[in-house]
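We treat protein structure as text, and this decision shapes the records that our systems exchange. Such a record has a labelled line for the sequence and another for the backbone structure tokens. The record that follows is passed on verbatim for readers who wish to inspect the format:
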Amino acid sequence: MRWVLLLTVFPMGAFQAATDASTSSPDLALHYPSAQVSQAVAREMLDALDEEYARVRHELGCVIGAKITAIVIPLASWEAMGNVAWSGGMFDGRIQVPLVYERSRVGPRMRKVFAHEIVHACIARFGQFPTWLHEGLAQRLSGEMLSHDARRGLQQALEARRLPALEQLAGGWSGLSGAQASLAYAYALWAAEVWTETEGAEAVRQLLQNPGRVPELTGRLNEALRR
């Protein structure tokens, strides 16, 4: 399962056709399809979103201010909207995720999707940041870990000079193929791992408050990943 940060804003009518119920907390408003999600499960979703928001807010030091809107969309509607096959969620100012939960409950998979998109929401509050940083931190803070095979594949791609410099992954990724997306996400996660493990969480918080330091960080990581 992969995620994508998109800038496309779908009209609310597209969501209203797929979601007809809502519930909210002080920080979040959740919209969901009542035909597929019971009120009890919607409350579980909202609780999971609140918990992940509190955790991510602590990690990144972000305060969003206005309520976050989260929209859970039936899978058929999600696919009909033309979302790329490898995307597992989307943030364009609103958290949008397809309805994929385990045994009609909120399991680890959906919680991870929520956490991933909340990271995007938090980072966006600090300003404009490159996609590799968004996706690297979103994976890292949602619990993704590089497999041994993925790490080996990255090292081989690096040795073969098939990995671009990180700054070449700063723009949108929606046009990537599945294979390209898999490599890009693994590369972004690798960069985030090296960054957080060598410089620590406080360095991440400081950089988010100073977007102008991103080129300096990018240069350091480009060197570190090639050692």
Observations:
- Residues 39-60 form the longest helix (22 residues).
